[in-house]
């Protein structure tokens, strides 16, 4: 059985990072028990903050503006950091630092597909942002990320100038919204079933089981 999963995600979304880890655990478990099965994952763009300036802005100011008081933001970030730790992720002080505009990052993740490095680059962006507190608006950090997964750093400027690719990213994000994607993470299995949110590993396994039973029916 081959299963396709489209993931609508944003690399500044903590639940997307948590959901990525949980889905990976589910895939590893399923493929380990079903060696003939193949699960193919592709990443789809969704910007949590599409109206941010291209250079981004201060993260704490952004979070307070979006969610209200600083106390509320601190409580929210502590809660998500605690949950992330349960999934083996260490978040740095995610209130500090820089909030990037992620449009270019989505385009780079798509370009990385040409090198078979789509998921790997998304992982590095997540890691740099949440675990290392790096500024993903900084070209040097982006180039470092590309090099880390084996994508030529020249792709940064090439993607910036690639109007068809940038238009494709806009189109795909709009298509997601037409499908009902209003928040992320959002997963579509075999263009048939949708799952929203960073669900437990067991729920993903239940979806795989349902798809398998339907394939054998």
Describe the 3D structure.
There is one protein chain. By secondary structure, the protein is of the alpha+beta class. The protein has a single domain (11-215), classed as Glutaredoxin, CATH 3.40.30.10. It contains nine helices and six strands; from the N terminus they run βαββααβαααααββα. It has helices spanning 14-33, 59-67, 70-86, 103-112, 118-131, 139-149, 155-160, 163-178, 201-215, and strands spanning 2-9, 38-45, 57-58, 98-99, 186-189, 193-196. A four-stranded mixed sheet has the order 2-1-5-6, sandwiched between helices. It has a two-stranded antiparallel sheet with strand order 3-4. The longest helix is centred in the N-terminal third of the chain and has 20 residues, at 14-33. The protein is globular and about 50 Å long. The mean pLDDT is 96. Pfam families: DSBA. This is Polyketide synthase. Residues 5-206 form the DSBA-like thioredoxin domain.
